[in-house]
Design a protein that fits this description.
about 40% helix, 16 strands, about 400 residues, 4-stranded parallel β-sheet, 11 helices, Rossmann fold, 6-stranded mixed β-sheet, alpha/beta
Length: about 400
Amino acid sequence: MKGLTALTVAGAIMSSAASAEIRIAHVYGKTGPFEAYAAQSHNGLKLGLEYATGGTMEINGEKIVLIEKDTQLKPDIGRAQLEEAFGDDDAHIAVGPVSSGVALAMLPVAEEYERVLIVEPAVADSITGSNWNRYIFRTGRNSSQDAIANAVALGGEGVTVATLAQDYAFGRDGVAAFKEALEATGATVAHEEYVPTDTTDFTAAAERIFTKMSDVDGEKKLFIIWAGGGNPMGKINAMEPERFGIEIATGGNILAALKAYKELPGMEGATYYYYEIPQNPVNDWLVKTHFERFDSPPDFFTAGGMASGMAIVEAIKKAGGADDTDALINAMEGMTWETPKGPMTFRPEDHQAMQTMYHFRTEIQDGKDYGVPVLVREMGMDDLSIPLRNN
């Protein structure tokens, strides 16, 4: 009997030790067209957890266990992988994914399992809009934040804009938000063009845009919303849109994509992040550490991943642990925390992170093989009126 008791106690101790860990699942597109985005996001998440825990990778004495799941950029696989993370792996919190389409398939799973999913970096407004539920938080920017920041940077009376975007949630939500925001500046949208996500020949789309814009008077811009390969900006620029008085404009992007910006010095837009723009201790650490470990600067989605990792640590500290989802939600609603971009705040109504965006102008600089987005001005949380879309 004594032996049985000892075994029972030992089992309880082992069970307690096993439970004294914080399980975070990163469910993201490790393979597929957005592999570069995914790698940045994952590195950033790990760096954020490291920074926020002072290098211990523990929160309140509990070890962080990071679980990786590959969505392969497919909605059905993303949903199944999140179910596995919450069901089989008993993850307390999940982060991801890269694609908006995959994210929309994953949202109901968080509600079904009553666990928090931090969306990073998927952008579509509907994630924290019409498809949102109370278990969803987003550290990444949404389409409205992108759109309104770009509208503020590009819009004005007498400006006419055509848009080119990919034909899925990211592109259509982005254009809808941009159009709404742009019209508030006095500008008008003359034409919307949508093409498949894997398009590489933009001749037909560009010719339709040129035809629509050729007789328009005043300042004319073609605003491109794009993710992944294809280089629509460079290819359309080679078709000499200036013949029709059209200037190309776009938002920020990863460093590899900025190579196309070198062909367009002076181009303006708004960006989520460029490593030389934010001036704060978190970004200083990120830039220094990233150069030391990867021999390269941190990129667009590295900063976003780091923001999500820092949000997780802050939330668990505030909630007193990771086991009580309601306590986590209460801690996160309205929570402000530090990131490489400066402070972010989860808006209580839809859990979207309010954050700074940056108006830039492209500049050619020695030693850089891309167009550098140089800061024109910061657009803080209070400068951007981001609509609620979940009601």
